[in-house]
TrEMBL record:
Domain Oxidoreductase molybdopterin-binding span(s) in chain numbering: 60-206
One Pfam short name: Oxidored_molyb
Protein name listed in UniProt: Molybdopterin-dependent oxidoreductase-like protein
Organism domain of life: Bacteria
């Protein structure tokens, strides 16, 4: 997540993260700061200006530049494609401004994003309309996510190439990341490297560790053994 993309942690720690996040929602910014203080030794979070906290699920992530970046689109598509930054820029562009909400409780309001709406990218690649889902992989080699095809067809699902008025930085998951506006941050996969059109939803990295596959902000996160945020 960005956002909870914490380093690999055990179930007990994850439950603690959710509890702290609920406390942050209830008590405000002072409690949110405590959340960061407690998590930092566990997952290597780097507190940052603007309210974002940065997480990774690996000890290091290779850096890609605008010149070296490639996005592989495969699976049930008319033709497999390897997209460069220039290819993405040539597709219809979408901009939106939305809050970024982490499941642990912190929020960054009114973040400006732009890039290619996921439905436009799927259409450009000839995605099979009968396919059920999309899986996403990170070029960190570990992180994965998924959406149903219905979710992926929403106009507020974005293959983001820009945020906050500039390129998506490496720490934010650039040069290209997923932004799932109506969902908690762990669905907005960082360092997007692959998109595959598939026959069924495949639980992602954090879903395999107990998080809800359908992570709509403001709804239950699907867990009965931990508070929601």
């Amino acid at each position: 997540m960005d956002e909870v993309e914490g380093a690999p942690v055990g179930r007990r720690v994850v439950l603690g993260m959710l509890g702290l996040g609920a406390l942050g929602v209830a008590l405000g910014s002072r409690a949110q700061d405590k959340v960061g203080d407690v998590l930092a030794p566990i997952s290597g979070i780097i507190p940052a200006a603007g309210g974002f906290r940065y997480y990774t699920v690996t000890s290091s992530v290779p850096e890609e530049t605008a010149q070296t970046y490639r996005l592989e689109v495969s699976g049930r598509v008319a033709k497999k494609r390897t997209l460069t930054m220039a290819d993405l820029a040539a597709l219809p562009q979408t901009s939106l401004t939305r809050d970024f909400q982490c499941v642990t409780g912190w929020r960054v309001k009114d973040v400006a994003w732009s890039g290619v709406a996921l439905p436009d990218l799927l259409d450009a690649c000839g995605a099979d309309p009968k396919a059920a889902a999309i899986t996403f992989t990170s070029f960190d080699g570990v992180y994965t996510e998924s959406l149903t095809m219905e979710q992926a067809r929403r106009r507020d699902m974005l293959v983001a190439t820009s945020m906050l008025g500039g390129p998506v930085t490496h720490d934010h998951g650039g040069p290209v990341r997923l932004f799932t506006a109506p969902m908690y941050g762990y669905k907005s996969l960082k360092w997007l490297g692959g998109i595959e059109v598939v026959d069924e939803v495949e639980p992602g990295y954090w879903e395999l560790r107990g998080y809800d596959v359908d992570a709509w902000v403001g709804r239950s996160n699907g867990r009965t053994d931990a508070p929601t945020s």
